[in-house]
Amino acid sequence: MIKLKFACLAIVFFMAGTTTMRAGGILTNTNQSISFLRNPARDGAIGIDGVYSNPAGVAFMNEGFHIAFNWQSVWQTRTVTTTNPLFALGVQNDAATSKTYKGYARAPFLPSLQGAYNKGRWSLQFNATITGGGGKCEFKQGIGSFEGAVGQIANSLKPLGATGYDLNSYMQGKQFYFGLTVGAAYKVNEHLSVYGGLRALYGIATYKAKISDIRVNTANGLIPFGTYLDQTNAYLAGNLAQVQAGLNQLKPIIDAQGENAPEQYLTQYKTLLATQAQLTTTQASLTQLEVYREGVNLQSDQTGFGIAPIIGVDYKTGNFNLAAKYEFRTRMSMKNKSTVDEVMAIEAVNQFRDGTSVREDNPAQLAFGAQWSVLPNVRLNAGYHHFYDAESKKYADKQKLLDGGTNEYLGGVEWDPVDNLTVSGGFQITKYGLTDSYMNDISFVVDSWSFGLGAKYQVSDKVAVNAAYFQTNYGDYRTAPSAAGVQNSFTRTNKVLGLGVEVDF
Predict the structure, then answer these.
(1) What is the per-residue pLDDT for 412?
(2) In the beta sheet, which residues pair with residue 195?
């Protein structure tokens, strides 16, 4: 009966990672330009978007300044179908044990800015963007973990007349990793260029959860949790008074006669003592729930900072361009400002204690790309990404629950039907190293395949406009039932529109 406090705190604070944008590893956005949206396989291409995808290749662009501004608008849903035997106690569930919870996220304006200055053999570059997260996700009806916690309390209160429960719940997670990358590429010769740079990350995150209007169903109907506590405590106090009265009557007789007292009195006395102990324990358990008579309202804010190097290489030969890039792991510690100021019985909650810092590394990434100019106006692209998520340290070594890192496979094509127009399309297949123990209904990813298509129009010699649509199609990850019969099924949707402008001068 005292598990409500710990259960509610634990589930809300697993919300780390609740983000809006997702194309890349578990904590990495690779959709940082409109060029990527219209053809995700940009790792071997040469263009201003290469300051992220192929920074070494930017050295082969013309001399002068190159600037790109990108705007993306993202719509996303997250759907969790939870099966829990305790849901049958919910008065609004009609005895059903499975429910679907849907979260909605929208980020109408996600900007990024890329720039390079090429002179001679050198290319000086910068990239300002959101490298992880990108907005907020909101579950207006809460999630299964929330309801399961209240169901567990109602189930434990059955001996005290509870037959079910009702509640209102809400969850919101918001996370942004702002990234600024600066670096330089050097053109060794007409075939080879190399790159070195640094990326700084500043992370902010806010997690909110609310469980309100908790009501307990009894023989007299639904009553507020606070009223139920008052009535039950009054009932327990009355019974304790009766038990004490009985003990007071029997004690003088037993004290006077000892073992010679009638067996009936001795048996009654032992029974009353056991009943008193049981009622006292139950009363103490209810007392610990007093603070939650109005529900639960929790919030945690986090901030963190980290820096990591990036290296790259690009090689041109004939109609082929080959490239590789390695981003080192970014060590980050997120500092907490939260309503949790004491050590809790559930260890997962302690990572969010006010004033403490916890590890939340951004994973290393290895990328390879290739472009083949089949014809002067037709180009084929291919790429591969590996994110070292399983080596990216998290609180309590949660990364060890993964069955390896993330792998992505990309392909695309570009066609110039006329001199000032490029149309393109591509795909991306993403495979995570997921396990049942890693997944939870507050923060999750699912294997997916994405496609993008769009066009680039050269308005003038100095200005070009990009437009694209990008969509991710997710699979359905279903966990095995737990010992308590709890099972989750996860899926998502993701749609992105983007516009961008490139300027050369």
Answers:
(1) 98
(2) 185, 312
Pairing of strands 64-83, 487-504: antiparallel
Torsion 25-447-487-403 (CA) sign: negative
Mean pLDDT over each residue of the chain, to the nearest integer: 90
pLDDT in tens, 387-434: 999 999 988 888 999 999 999 999 999 999 999 999 999 999 999 999
What's the rounded Cα separation, in Å, for the pair 213 and 226?
10
* Cα–Cα separations (whole angstroms), residue 486 to 27, 84, 280, 352, 477: 27, 5, 32, 26, 14
Is residue 301 a contact partner of residue 182, using CB atoms and an 8 Å limit?
no
Q: What is the 3-state secondary structure (H, E, C) of 168-205?
A: EEEEEEEEEEEEEEEEEEEECCCCEEEEEEEEEEEEEE
* pTM beyond 0.90, yes or no: no
Residue 56 φ/ψ region, left for φ over 0, alpha for ψ in the -120 to 50 degree band, beta for the rest: alpha
Lowest mean pLDDT among 194-198, 226-230, 462-466: 226-230
E-assigned strands of 333-438? 333-338, 357-359, 365-375, 378-387, 406-418, 421-431
Helix (H) or strand (E) run with residue 489 in it: strand 487-504
Confidence of residue 27 (pLDDT cuts 50, 70, 90): low
Q: Please give the Cα distance from 297 to 303 (Å, whole number).
A: 21
Length, in residues, of the chain: 505
Cα gap 149→153, rounded to integer Å = 7
- Listed residue (340, 315, 336, 311) closest to 325, CA to CA: 311
Nearest-5° Cα angle at 401, 447 to 210: 80
CA dist., res. 174 & res. 301, Å (int): 10
Residue pair 173/277 in contact (Cβ under 8 Å)? The answer is: no
